[in-house]
Amino acid sequence: MAYGALYDGTRCIGCRACSVACKSWNKNPADLEKKPSVEGGIEGKAVLSDKTFTFMRFREIGEGDDLKWAFAKIQCMHCLKPGCETACIVGALHRNKETGAVSYDKGKCIGCRYCMVACPFGIPTYEWEKRMPWIRKCTFCSDRLNEAENGLAPACITACPTDALEFGDRDALIAKAWDRINASKEADPAGVGKYVEHIYGEKEVGGTAWMYISSVDMTELDLPWLSEEPVTKNARAAMKTLPYYATGMLVLMASIYFITKRKQKIAAGKHAEKKG
Amino acid sequence: MQEMKEQKQGFQWGTLILSALAFLCAGVLVQRYVFGLGAMTNMSDGRGWGLWISFDLYCGVALAAGGFTLAALVHVFNQEKYHPVVRPAILTAFLGYLLVVLALLVDLGQPWYIWRMIFNPNIHSPLYEVGWCVMLYTAVLALELSPAVFERLHWRIPLKIIGMIQIPLIIVGIVISTGHQNSLGSMLLIMTHSIDPLWYTPIIPALYFVSAMAVGPAMVIFEGTLSGAVFGHKISQDIFTGLGRIVSGILVVYLIMRLADMAVAGHFGMIIHSYPQNIYWLIEIIGGVVLPIILFNIPKIQQSKKGMFIAALLYIVLGLSFNRFIMSSVWLQIRPGYTYFPSWQEFAVSIGLVAWALMMFQIAMRLLPIAGHHGEEEAKPEHAAPEATPAS
Fold it and tell me: Distance, in angstroms, between A120 CA and closest chain B CA?
């Protein structure tokens, strides 16, 4: 079992209580330079940073009567097959199989930033302004999950006033999400319902702990379109061939060496015979 | 006399410019370590890797491929005629790898913790393989180069020891360095979402390996011509022609692999439809691969130093460096809301490190028995004869 989180775009009111809760639990200071979620008008230019693990993205989608005012909570997706975990040279990024949280250990990191370019969602951030910079990202509140028996869900989810964020067993959340999508469809005389028939994160890159259902396609909220294949597949396959490659190359080179040396010796022998 | 004087003067100008670049680089490095990466690079959360990874690591390692290709050619495949260019190739490779190591120590956020990769291995990470290959192959290259130092110092015993382990050392070096070229390709495999489908394929590691094999001899032609002009020693046209044939042979294999891979993936349509990526692709394949193959096979060009130089340069710049740059930088996804163009400090570090390497190359060429070293064949007159009449 592993935990998951479900974001329901039809319930979210864009209050950003989740962002505030995140900042306060992780003791992250305000990011004065990037001014998440205020600068750049109503659609905002908010981005993740070393001081911001989550933010609310706002988008106006459609025109006229179809205009929708859509939100998405952006944070680490906590992939089931994380690109960052495979990428990390020192294993500083690790997915906890019990909780499903992908957490970062700065006691191992060397600052190579491979995780930043390997992440399909563009999540890990870096302390660029510091002389000794570390990677920073959402922890899925691992320090709260450890006390799961006490019922401590991640801070952002606890703060949500409309139950747009839900926390629980990932499989149970998927079932719940489909129930909600289907129920809405049945209740609608036109048979459409208020949801797009897709749980973003159920299968993307092999599945993610964070999942989204909404009245709009999540790619319209600038979440990337991704296939169901884990990003780690080809790289892991390539690394598995390594021992065979090394052995093969070693044997090949050694054999070629002995063959050419032998040829040379035979040729030298013939040369000597002729001279003799 | 006149000619010699002129040459010497040009040389000093070169040294002056190189020193200036090298010192500028050193100054920028002070800034980097005192104020951090954010203060002097244009890298950001949107683009975690920049010029240093694309140029110093990706191009640097590939362009150092002359070391393993020439060592294999002479010591494993027993092609004795290439012996005079082995040592310069190994020297270049060694300096190239030193440059890569230095650049990585600049690029890493916590270079003082580099030892952590020994105690916290992640065997699934392609970068883990890259890290080990850089360390081990730099050591191997130093050992492969050490006979030149021992000969100069007349240290007979170390020379004898190195001579005994020379062949195993070279073979291990080939395994490590080809593995390194592969693993640089494996590193990109994880970026399924950012590399353009015209370049992304599960066989990137194999393509990197083959293209690196081809760039080794091409680099020897390139720098052999240049160092011939600077240091005045002659390399026979016969060697260049032979190397050109090897390059074009490997490039044909490379081209077939690229095209076959696209056929399997069904991506041929993209050459027409996916603008502007297709322009880059055509420049790389037509200008950097097809054209050199043709040039290397024209008899008139095979006999011309200039012709060979241009053909080699085309592949080095358009076929290889351009390819590495595109894959590790141009199409690498930038997070929404960010842009990236290297800062002048990033350029200063990359160029400055090359300047340091060139100056060290100059010093090594003067002090050590590198140029025209003929190995065991030195004494044989029949080998020396054709090399004495180069067509300038």
Answer: 6
